[in-house]
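Task 17 of the worksheet. Students: predict the tertiary structure of the chain below and write it out as structure tokens. Keep your answer in the requested format; marks are given for formatting as well as content.
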Amino acid sequence: MTERIDTAVNEVEQVREIPQETFDWYDEYAHGVIDRREFMKRLSGLAVLGFSMTVLTSALMPNYALAEQVSFNDSKIKATYEEFDSPKGHGKGRGYLVVPRELKGTAPVVLVVHENRGLNPYIEDVARRLAMSGYIAFAPDALFPLGGYPGNDDDGRAMQSSMDRAKIEEDFIAAAQFIKSHSRSSGKLGAVGFCFGGYVVNMLAATMPDALDAGVPFYGTPAAESIRDNVKGPLLLQFAELDKRVNATWPDYEKTLLANNVPFEAHIYPEVNHGFHNDSTGRYNESAAELAWERTLIFFDKHLRA
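Model answer:
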């Protein structure tokens, strides 16, 4: 444990020195605005400032060994992989189902939606955290039709970008319906998602407003403008102050929510980057992540346990 803390401290100290534009470039690369060659070219340009590529890539790329807050074999939970039907999507989907082992009766269910790279270990850990808080959590893998998350984010990102986005969205709608109707479900459905997953939560709020009882998009863009008026909420929207790309979409979305009297909370966490909740990367901000997660659990408790 001491070694892990020392490593994390060293990485944080390095991150503090890295120029903000480096994180902006990573966001552009991660979301397909620039390709890997251009991203690496820009990083190499920082060599004149004394940054090694090792320091830069370790600060930006995920290290999933740091992201396990709840062990996959913790005795308090039971985790399995379950398939579900998705007739309007890819036919079949699969996700990571985590249930509190001592659950008696039913419990609210929460759909956990990954970023634009498939079901990676960080998202699975988020599902386990929810189960430790008494929820039944289900985290689908959009890459299941192609064999599943490949074990690294670069390949996962390329795989997901090659897929039909409309079918992916249908798969998540089907996953939400699957977990809401689970035999141990109380009938209350929540959803939390990150980046692309944040968009999916907003999309679910617009496409199945009567079925979604609480949505928490982390730094997610809104659903298509043509369906935004369908949103009923409630929503808890989490933003990073330095996330210019996503934040630019918020004012118009906020106007729609206000005009339609949709119940929502929105929080912008100061001086943090897109992905601040992901504790496997240098973008992670512990204080903001813990506050955002505390708010998430309070929000779910309020709307899913009533």
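Marker's comment: The CA atoms of residues 22 and 43 lie 7 Å apart. The chain has two domains: 2-61, 66-304.
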